[in-house]
Amino acid sequence: MSTLTCPDPLPSPAEDCERLHKAFEGWGTDEGSIISVLAHRPAAHRRQIRRVYAEIYGVDLLKPLDKELTRDFEVASSRSRAVLLWAVDSAERDAVLANEVVRKWSPENRVLIEIAVVRTAEELLAARRAYQNRFKRCLEEDVAGSTHGDFRKLLVPLVSTFRYEGAEVNTSLAKTEAKLLNQKIKDNDYSHEDVIRILTTRSKMQLLATFDDYNNAFGNPINKDLKSDPTNQFLLALRAIVRCITCPQRYLEKVMRLSISKMGTDEGALTRIITTRAEVDMQQIKEEYFKRNSVRLEQAVKKDTTRDYEDFLLALVGQVDS
Length: 322
Hints:
By secondary structure, this protein is mostly helical. It has helices at 13-24, 31-38, 43-57, 62-72, 76-87, 90-103, 111-118, 121-135, 139-146, 149-160, 171-186, 193-201, 204-218, 222-225, 233-246, 248-259, 267-277, 282-293, 297-304, 307-316.
């Protein structure tokens, strides 16, 4: 469920464009106006704003946003990034996030898993198309070029797949593949082609059935059996896939919790989760956050962020000004 709050009725795209253009003029940027417009408009309307802005002023809205926010937002690069990510379509946003990963990939990074598994099959396909359109390259090719070894074997098919999304489940196959997964885990053969094939290609409903059969047959959730070496980054990647399939909101809540519970906020992770989930399931993530921490997410964000960045993120998670 979305946490976005929008006026009713919405102003016309032309009115919003004029307000944004005025916010860019003069000696200082009017960040409040930028936030009041972009943080309170649904995706389809933001898409129209970007199109109409280019028609009226002859420039992509992202260019003045980048210029003005980088200049004026405090610690500009990380703070303005939130607005720039929010201003684009969800598919282009995922493409940008994926490109950031492949340019500086490390085994600890789980963003590709998040994009490939939490998104629907159509959303992942749209992100791959947006990646080609924006970067003139293939996402799968870039993932293959930036990763290596077992991670390449896992991540290339993960970002390439188009999972079936129907409700049908093959119960016999679920039992068979639960046994196969258990055997490979017992053998410490975590990167076996069958393990990768099952996790990267089976439908989410099929995998949920397989994980249930695994638990029933062997007395442990599969993720518990994948904890044999908590320092093994490949095992941690497999566990992330399982969690993104079984309980994506809890997985994303944990990413947010860790991003604001460290010495120094991980603004990249905080920005990514809020901008990608505000119009999808942020309400559920907020509920999970409160269950886990007994603190409202808005309070945690307010404590760990400041000024324009704080205002923008709070608007996206649905805080109503007092």
